[in-house]
Amino acid sequence: DTGVSQNPRHKITKRGQNVTFRCDPISEHNRLYWYRQTLGQGPEFLTYFQNEAQLEKSRLLSDRFSAERPKGSFSTLEIQRTEQGDSAMYLCASSLEAYEQYFGPGTRLTVT
Amino acid sequence: AQSVTQPDIHITVSEGASLELRCNYSYGATPYLFWYVQSPGQGLQLLLKYFSGDTLVQGIKGFEAEFKRSQSSFNLRKPSVHWSDAAEYFCAVASSNDYKLSFGAGTTVTVRA
Fold it and tell me: What is the mean pLDDT of the segment spanning B39-48?
């Protein structure tokens, strides 16, 4: 069990650029979640997958955000035309069915 | 929709002293409750969870929490803190439908020597 991994750990981009983050869940975990955490706040739910199906998207997830989980393994989160307000820590978590979620170290995005 | 309130933004405690972090939740049905800890630059680590049964739950690192339905609370305690317990602590609640977590704003714990 190597835990949840996320890449990159840090990303600095200019406003208007597209960015993509990757999350590798714990093997055999069929649920995968994305959260966003801004400074001084708790994480906020963005979206989650059960296997390859995206089952729910938060209203926080604007049309510029898209997430995929092909083949029910790793997941990617893409942000198009980044804005300064997108600067945050993006956290990925995985779980086996409905049990507790295990979090990765996060990807810190800075939009300049 | 469920929500969590952590009334204390910052707590300072002496090493060896006891610690209690407050958490109040709002949810119509029986909640699933969690405490996570986050060290600087790190992801969240699960300390303990409550799903059902005994209302006093034990977790890792010597932490425990008590679920009190009448008070809608799930407070975290540790009898004697260590300097390594300095971190940010998050309480979270999940519904039984989809298990997505709703977090409180967190409590930062500082441990003084």
Answer: 89
